[in-house]
Design goal:
The complex is a heterodimer of chains A (367) and B (334). Chain A is an alpha/beta fold and 367 residues long. In chain A, 38% of the residues lie in helices and 18% in strands. Chain A contains 15 helices and 11 strands. Chain A starts with 9 loop residues before the first helix and ends with a helix. With 334 residues, chain B is of the alpha+beta class. Chain B contains 9 helices and 13 strands. The longest helix of chain B has 18 residues. In chain B, a hairpin with a 5-residue loop joins strand 12 and strand 13. In chain B, the strands form 3 sheets. A 7-stranded mixed sheet of chain B has the order 8-10-7-11-9-12-13. Chains A and B meet through helix 1, helix 2, helix 3 and helix 15 of A and helix 8 and strand 13 of B.
C-alpha cells in the first residue's frame, strides 16, 4: 500500500537500528537512556511492530500519558452515562470510549441497560444524527487532544450556523503542552529525551514543543507514527545526546509544519477557551490543561443544558502515575495482569490499546 | 400474503400456513420438508455422524457478497466440514420481526436454497416464529447441520504437534470489513465483498491430497481468535509470520483508516489448517489450485515454547504476542 509500506520497510529498519546501536555504543550510558514517547499512537506502534524488542537494552521507552481515552477521568464517564440513562439523550462517542469503565460500569454496559449510545467516526456524524432525530437531544462526548478539538470546533460552528437546538457537547478536550509541563515539573523524573506528539503538532505546530528544549533542557523530536518514523526520531534524539545538544527537531515534517494549521487553530480559539484546571486519570489535577466552550457557544454545553453537577475527581487505586513517570514498569505494578487487565482495567493505562499497560499486556511485556 | 410479516404469520393459522407453503416449501423444494412433519428422517451413509448448531444475527441482512441466508447455510456447512464431515442435511429456524418485508424474506430464502445446492446439502426441517416490532432485529436464523465423518478420520486441536505448519486458504478479514463497510456509516465506496462461501469442496480436496491435523474457519474474532484457541488447546506455541498472511489492499485500507487489525476481522469463507511439516507443500498446492483460490499461504509453524502463546513476527521484523480479541473491534480515536 503506497505511503504506508515505505514507512514499514524492514531493510531500512535494519540500517537505522545498526546506526542506533553504533550511537549507543559510543555513548555507553551508565544506565539505560529513558526516552519518553508522549503519544498513545507512538506507544501502540512501538508494541505493534515489536520495536521494543528490536532495540538494545540501553534504550528504555517511557510511555507517556498521550492517550485521551486513558486519561479520561472516571467521573466524566459517569456523567456521560447519566446523560444517556437519567436524561434520556442520544449519546454519541468515538468507538474506544465505549469500554472505558466509570465508577459504575462503562457506556457499553449502559447501552445494555437501555442507554442510546452510538459510535461515530466524526463529530459531524453527531450533527447529522441530531438533524435526523429532531425529537431527541443528541450529545457528542467530545474527547481528545488538540488533534480532535478542531473537528469538534468546526462542528459547533456548523451547529451554531444552522441554529440546531437539539445538539450539545460533553466537552473533555485536553491540551498536551500543559500535561507535558506537569510531568516535566516532577523533580524525580530523569528523562533523557522526548518524542513529541506528531498529530498534535500538525494542528499546533512543532514550535509549541520548543519549551521542552528551552525550559527543561531536554532533546526533543516531533515524531510520526510509522515504525520507521519512530526509529528515525530515536536516532535523531541520540545524535543530539551525543552532541550534547538540547534542541527541537521535527522528524514529521511531511505532515507537521512549524506553525501548524492556522485554520484549525483559529477554529479552536473561536469556540474554546482554556479552563482553569482539569483532572487527568492517573495524573490528577493539572492547571490550564483543558478546553471549555466560550460564552458565545455555552448553549452547546451539555453540562449546562442538563444542569449536571461538578463531580469530585476519583483517583485509581493502581499506581499509574509511577508508570507514566518511568519510575515503575507496567509489569512491576502489583496489580498488573492480575487485578488489572484489559477486560477489567483498574487503572488508566490498561484502558485503551494505546495505554502503556494495555499495550504491554497485549503485545508481549507479559512474558 | 401481504407485503410485510405480521404476527399472524407466526400464529399457527392460515397466514402461517401460506407463508410456509409459498415461501419455504416452494423455494427449498425438498420432499422430506414437504411432509410437514415435526421431524425429518435422515438416512445417513456409513461413518461417524457429526452435528453442529449455529445462530445468525448479522446486520445488515444484505451485504456485498452475501446475505444472512447464505451466511447461515455456508456457516453451518463450514462448521461440519472443518471436522472432515460430508454435510448431509440442515434444519433452520427463523425468528422474524413484525414488519419485515416479505420480499426480503423471499430473497433470503432463495439465497439459502442456492447456497445449499452449491454445497450439496438438503434443508429438511424448520420452524418460524414472529416477534412483535422491536422485540427482534428484522430476522434471526438458527440452524443445525448433520454430516458424516468418514471412519478413521480424526481432526482436532489435540492432534497439533510441534513442527506442524499453519496455512490459510485465502485473504483474511474480507467478511468483517465488508460488514463494517456495508453498515454505511463510514461513507466509503462499498467495494469490499464478503468471502461468504461453503468450503466443502476445498476441504475434501485438501484431505484427499494431504495429511491434516486440525482445521477451523476463522469467523468471529478472525485469525487471531482461532490461533489463540489452538495455542491454548494444544499447549504449544503458534509462531506466525505477518508478512505471509494474505490480506487484500482494500481490507488493509479500511483497517488503516479505522485503526483496526485485519487479523481480528471475521472471515466466512476461509479455513486455517494445521498440517504436518512434510505435508505442507502438498496442502498448499491443494488449497491454491482448488476452484478460483490462488492466494493460500503457509503463515506459520508450531513450536514447543512459549506454551500456549501466539507469537507474531511483524512485517517490520519485530516480534510480539498476538493476543485473543476482546469483544467487538472498536475503531481507535487517533
Amino acid at each position: 500500500m503506497r505511503y504506508i509500506d515505505e514507512f514499514r520497510d524492514p531493510g531500512a529498519a535494519r540500517t537505522l537500528i545498526r546506526e542506533i546501536e553504533g550511537l549507543l555504543e559510543a555513548l555507553a550510558p551508565p544506565r539505560p537512556l529513558q526516552i519518553m514517547e508522549f503519544c498513545g499512537g507512538h506507544t501502540h506502534a512501538i508494541f505493534r511492530y515489536g520495536l521494543h524488542q528490536m532495540l538494545p537494552e540501553a534504550v528504555e521507552w517511557i510511555h507517556g500519558p498521550g492517550c485521551p481515552v486513558c486519561v479520561l477521568p472516571r467521573e466524566r464517564i459517569d456523567k456521560a452515562i447519566s446523560l444517556a440513562l437519567d436524561h434520556g439523550v442520544t449519546l454519541t462517542c468515538f468507538g474506544d470510549v465505549l469500554r472505558v469503565p466509570g465508577t459504575a460500569g462503562s457506556l457499553l454496559e449502559a447501552r445494555g441497560r437501555g442507554a442510546d449510545v452510538r459510535i461515530v467516526y466524526s463529530p459531524l456524524d453527531s450533527l447529522a444524527l441530531a438533524k435526523a432525530l429532531p425529537e431527541r437531544e443528541v450529545v457528542f462526548f467530545a474527547i481528545g487532544f488538540e488533534t480532535t478539538a478542531p473537528a469538534t470546533a468546526f462542528t459547533v460552528l456548523q451547529a451554531d450556523k444552522e441554529s440546531l437546538a437539539n445538539f450539545s457537547l460533553l466537552c473533555q478536550h485536553v491540551t498536551t503542552p500543559s500535561a507535558i509541563r506537569a510531568l516535566l515539573g516532577d523533580p524525580e523524573l530523569r528523562l533523557d529525551g522526548i518524542l513529541a506528539p506528531g498529530h498534535v503538532s500538525t494542528v499546533l505546530g512543532s514550535e509549541s514543543f520548543r519549551f521542552i528544549a528551552d525550559e527543561y533542557h531536554l532533546p526533543v523530536v516531533v515524531s510520526g507514527f510509522e515504525p520507521l518514523d519512530l526509529l528515525q526520531s530515536l536516532w535523531m534524539l541520540l545524535v543530539q545526546i551525543r552532541e550534547g545538544r538540547c534542541t527541537l527537531e521535527n522528524q514529521y515534517g511531511r505532515v507537521a509544519r512549524k506553525a501548524g494549521s492556522l485554520a484549525a487553530k483559529r477554529a479552536i480559539a473561536r469556540v474554546f477557551e482554556p479552563a482553569p484546571s482539569a483532572s487527568w486519570r492517573g495524573l490528577g489535577e493539572i492547571p490550564a490543561s483543558s478546553l471549555r466552550l466560550r460564552g458565545a457557544y455555552a448553549g452547546f454545553d451539555a453540562e449546562r443544558r442538563f444542569a449536571l453537577n461538578a463531580a469530585r475527581h476519583i483517583e485509581d487505586p493502581a499506581p499509574c502515575g509511577e508508570v507514566l513517570k518511568g519510575r515503575m514498569r507496567p509489569g512491576e505494578c502489583p496489580f498488573f495482569a492480575c487485578r488489572c487487565n484489559p477486560e477489567n482495567p483498574l487503572g488508566a493505562l490498561m484502558v485503551s490499546s494505546e495505554g502503556a499497560c494495555a499495550a504491554w499486556y497485549r503485545y508481549g511485556g507479559r512474558t | 400474503m401481504g407485503k410485510c410479516v405480521t404476527l399472524a404469520h407466526g400464529s399457527g393459522g392460515l397466514a402461517m400456513e401460506r407463508l410456509i407453503r409459498e415461501v419455504f416449501l416452494q423455494t427449498f423444494d425438498d420432499p422430506e420438508l414437504a411432509r410437514l412433519e415435526d421431524q425429518a428422517r435422515l438416512e445417513l451413509p456409513p461413518g461417524c455422524p457429526a452435528l453442529t448448531t449455529d445462530a445468525f444475527v448479522v446486520d445488515p441482512l444484505f451485504f456485498p457478497g452475501g446475505d444472512i441466508g447464505r451466511l447461515a447455510v455456508c456457516g453451518t456447512v463450514n462448521d461440519l466440514v472443518m471436522g472432515g464431515a460430508y454435510p448431509q442435511s440442515l434444519s433452520c429456524a427463523f425468528i422474524l420481526e413484525e414488519g419485515l418485508p416479505i420480499d426480503d424474506l423471499q430473497r433470503i430464502v432463495r439465497s439459502m436454497k442456492v447456497a445449499a445446492d452449491e454445497a450439496g446439502v438438503r434443508i429438511v426441517t424448520g420452524d418460524t416464529k414472529v416477534v412483535p416490532k422491536g422485540a427482534g432485529d428484522k430476522m434471526f436464523i438458527t440452524t443445525a447441520g448433520v454430516g458424516v465423518i468418514p471412519s478413521g478420520l480424526e481432526l482436532g486441536a489435540a492432534r497439533i504437534c510441534a513442527g506442524d505448519r499453519i496455512l490459510v486458504s485465502g485473504p483474511v478479514g474480507d467478511h468483517g470489513a465488508a460488514i463494517l463497510d456495508a453498515r454505511g456509516d463510514l461513507g466509503l465506496t462499498h467495494s469490499i465483498r464478503s468471502d461468504c462461501r461453503a468450503l466443502d469442496g476445498l476441504v475434501h480436496s485438501l484431505l484427499a491430497s494431504s495429511s491434516v491435523h486440525a482445521m477451523r474457519d476463522p469467523t468471529r474474532g478472525g485469525l487471531a481468535a482461532v490461533l489463540n484457541e489452538y495455542a491454548r488447546a494444544s499447549g504449544l506455541c503458534l509462531r506466525i509470520f505477518e508478512d505471509n498472511i494474505p490480506v487484500r489492499e482494500t481490507v488493509r485500507g479500511i483497517c488503516e483508516l479505522l485503526g483496526l487489525d485485519p487479523l481480528y476481522l471475521a472471515c466466512e469463507g476461509r479455513l486455517l489448517a494445521v498440517v504436518p511439516e512434510d505435508s505442507a507443500e502438498r496442502a498448499l498446492t491443494a488449497l491454491r489450485f482448488h476452484g478460483d483460490r490462488t492466494d493460500a499461504a503457509i503463515i506459520g509453524e508450531v513450536m514447543a515454547q512459549p506454551v500456549g502463546q501466539v507469537i507474531l513476527k511483524t512485517v517490520f521484523g519485530g516480534e510480539r504476542i498476538l493476543d485473543q480479541p476482546e469483544g467487538e473491534p472498536l475503531p481507535r480515536i487517533c
